[in-house]
Amino acid sequence: MTVEQTAEPNIVKVGDGEYAEVMPARPMPATLDLLLLHFTARTEYPFRLVGTLRECTDSTHVFSPWLDGRWGLYELRLNRCPFCGTVEVRDVSLDFIPGLSSSSLPLRRRDQLLCWYSGRRPAGRTYA
């Protein structure tokens, strides 16, 4: 597959004339507290810890929406496990390529997992 750089930064032309956006990796803060320090919440969903579940020790969580908002240029959705409190951070920014017509297709949102905050590890963060 060939990749060509275009005039737009972060936009590349890949095989067969398709365009793709290259997202620079931005490191997430080391702890959830640091993330929330610069996080602007738009929507907060009710959340309550209900106890522990054996599956949570095997990294199988039941996530439910907790916070929607902005962190820098990213629109994030923070989902939280009601059993152990682990937080899943997902990028839900609009997915579009500047300068290209989307024709009749509506803009789509990304749904990309960025990291988890569990508090169990020394850094308190696990990358996907």
Structure explained in plain terms:
By secondary structure, the chain is mainly beta. The model is unreliable at 1-5 (pLDDT under 50). The strands form three sheets. Strands 4-5-6-7-10-11 form a six-stranded antiparallel β-sheet. A three-stranded antiparallel β-sheet has the order 1-2-3, with no helix packed on it. A two-stranded antiparallel sheet has the order 8-9. 5% of the residues lie in helices and 38% in strands.
Task: Report the order of strands and helices.
Answer: EEEHEEEEEEEE
Share of helix among residues? under 10%
Q: What strand line-up does the widest sheet have?
A: 4-5-6-7-10-11
| SS elements, strand count | 11
Question: How large, in whole angstroms, is the Cα Rg?
Answer: 18 Å
What spatial form do the alpha-carbon principal axes imply?
elongated
User: How big a fraction of the residues is strand?
Assistant: 35-45%
